[in-house]
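Acetolactate synthase small subunit, pasting as requested.
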Amino acid sequence: MSAMKLSSDSVSHSAYNLTQSANTPERHTLTVLVENEPGVLARVVGLFSGRGYNIESLTVAEVDHFDKRSRITIVTSGTPGVIEQIKLQLGRIVSVYGVNDLTVEGNAVERELGLFKVAGKGEARIEALRLAEIFRANVVDSTLDSFVFELSGNPTKLDAFADLMRPLGLAELARTGVAALPRGSK
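Structure tokens follow.
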């Protein structure tokens, strides 16, 4: 058998020599317009779990009562190849009318709602109220030893608020997940 000698050029252009950026996970926000019927959400989630893909955030709501359609917003991470596979596989589900990758398609508005229960007294309580005002969080419940704050914004804003509230007595946290729409008239 003869051995084939590879030049440095042929190795650098090889499909096996992928760049690091092609293997770096990216966060993507996908919206999926689906028929609002039993089992559709289970099929979508099953696609993710069956292939080992992670869902970071998932929201679902009916958006067209007349045509019985719902919008599923999914935040996931993966390499560009994995994200493409997810989009293709979602598009093959019978009850799916369309899949959009808001991360690739351009600017999008992303918002999330969070409820934060902060238990504390004295200076910690005063500091929690001060920070809530800076973040424009609303007090939706108050007792003598706790507050429940409501905050909406992009996910990083909610993360930052939670990080600041932890040392002040963050006791519980509930988040809705991301809701997103593309910017502009399209």
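Note for the archive: Residues 23-105 form a domain with the Alpha-Beta Plaits fold (CATH 3.30.70.260).
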